[in-house]
Amino acid sequence: MVDHVIEVVAPRIETATAMFVSARGSFHGNAAAQSMLVDGMAKVLVRSLLLDADVRRFVPFVLRGLFQPSAHFEHFFDAVPGRLHALLSRLVGLIRGEPAESETVILQTHALIGQLIVFLVGRPILLRRMHWQEYSPEAVEKILAVLVPSLQRTLGLPVVSIHVTPDPAKASAAPDQ
Questions:
Q1: pTM score of the predicted model
Q2: 165 lies in some domain
Q3: Number of structural domains in the chain
């Protein structure tokens, strides 16, 4: 099961990594470019987490594995959460002008990831409060409209948005009520 989760989730991390690698050379000292990269990476990751049925079905398994690590934890950690955390730490470190492995950068990265993960962990609460049946593509765009500027402000960046088209083949068709 762990290898299957890695097989499904790893390509999403690769997409975010490719965005980072292609943009990092152009954003040293350029707050608008940094902000656009945060915008694009956040949208890719959040859409995958909230809309991709393959990813969503593994959420309970992943959360259980994080709260009750098994013998497979190290393998899983190295392939998914550790890799994503390290990637986002590189992004935060470059924005802050600090090493990605500094305590401050790691802690700030963890706080930023918390802003993303809360939409998974707190899903039933938000669905009920918003009177939604499911996270539809429209609902996720509403989430992103609030979340991305929050992430940018947390990093001391200007609020800048780019358009990253969601993959309709991966999106849920649930109504936004």
A1: 0.82
A2: no
A3: 1
Element (H, E) at 2: helix 2-24
- Secondary structure (DSSP) of 23-50: HHTT-TT-HHHHHHHHHHHHHHHHHHHH
Residue 155, CA distances (Å) to 13, 146, 158 in order: 21, 15, 9
Q: pLDDT (tens digit, 9 = 90+) per residue, 45-70? A: 999 889 988 888 877 777 777 788 88
Q: What is the Cα–Cα distance from 151 to 137, expressed in whole angstroms?
A: 20
**Which residue in 19, 5, 98, 108 sits closest to 57, CA to CA?**
5
In a domain, 147, yes or no: yes
Range of the domain at 81: 2-154
Burial of 51: CB neighbours in 10 Å, binned 0-12, 13-18, 19+:
buried
Let me know if residue 108 belongs to a domain: yes
CATH classification at residue 39: 1.10.357.10
Mean pLDDT of 39-43: 93
- Residue 126 tokens, joined: 């938000």
